[in-house]
Amino acid sequence: MHYAGIGTLFVFMVTLTSPAYAHARPFLRGAVSVEIISDSGTVFQRVPFQDFRRGETRVLRQYLEAKKGENYGIVIRNNTPERIGVVIAADGRNIISGGRSDLKNNETMYIVNSYETTRYDGWRTSESEVHRFYFTEPADSYSVRTFDDSSAMGVIAVAVFREKERQQSHLEQKQNEVAPAAPSMEGARRSNGKSLADESAGTGFGETEYSPVIRVEFEPEVMPIQKILLNYEWRETLCRKGILQCEQKGTNRLWDKEEFVPYPPGYQMN
Questions:
Q1: 265, part of any domain
Q2: Residue in 86, 81, 78 with CA at minimum distance from that of residue 105
Q3: Which domain holds residue 48?
Q4: Are the CB atoms for 20 and 220 separated by under 8 Å?
Q5: I need a labelling partner for 78 at 20 to 30 A (CA). Which of 8, 118, 194, 205 fits?
Q6: pTM to 2 decimals?
Q7: Which tops the pLDDT comparison, 250 or 155?
C-alpha cells in the first residue's frame, strides 16, 4: 500500500518488495533537493561537509544550524520528470511509522510527483494529522522519550527512490484503511538524557496539525538514487567545532586586559 496527499501535499506510502529489474535504466534528469524551513519561511543555515557516491547512490552530508524551540518543516523539491518515493527520518526514526529507520526501500515513505515541491511538518499519527517538528534538547526529543533511542540523534535524513518500471500505469486510489500511526507517547520509556552530550539537539513531538493523505500504488527500486543527511546542532556547538566561522566578541583595550606591568629591557631579576 502507498499514500498520496490530497492536492499536491503530504504524500506517503508503504512499499512493496520484489526483485530489481535486470536492465539498466536511463539516468534520471534533474535533481531532488531538501531544505529545512522555519514557520516564518526562513531557511536554516547549512554547511556542506561531504558529497560522494556509494555505488549508484549519491550521498550528501551537511551540517545545519538548529534554533532551540523553533518549529521546522522538511521541504523536498522534485525537479525531475518522474515521481519519486522519499523515506524521511528524524533522529533515526521514520516520520510516518515511528519505526527505526535505515533508509531502506521497505519502509513507509512519501511520494512526491514530478516537478512538485512538498513540505512535511511533523510526526504522522493518522491519515489526517501530524504532530509538529521542533528543535529541542535530546531528553525532550520524540526518539528518546518514546523509544529511549539516541543512536542517530541530531540527524535529519532523506533517501530518494525511483519507481520501478511497470508494464502499465496504476491509477492512484483513495483508500478507507487507517494509516499506520506513529507509536503513542503515553506510557513510553523516558530517559534523563545524561548519556547524551549537553551540546546535542533533537526533534520534539509538538502540536497537532491537520495534514490529510491518501494511499497510492508505488513500487520503489531496491537502492536509493540519493541520500541527504543533515547533522543539526546549536550555533554555539557549530562555532566551537569550527564548522561555522563565528566572530569573536570585541574587547576593550583598557577594560579587558588583566596583565601586570612588564620588566624593563635588561632588568636583572634576583
A1: no
A2: 86
A3: 4-235
A4: no
A5: 205
A6: 0.75
A7: 155
Grid cell, residue 123, equals: 510526526
State the total domains in the chain: 1
Rg, the chain, Cα only: 23
Question: What's the pLDDT tens digit per position in 13-52?
Answer: 444 444 444 446 777 888 899 999 999 999 999 999 999 9
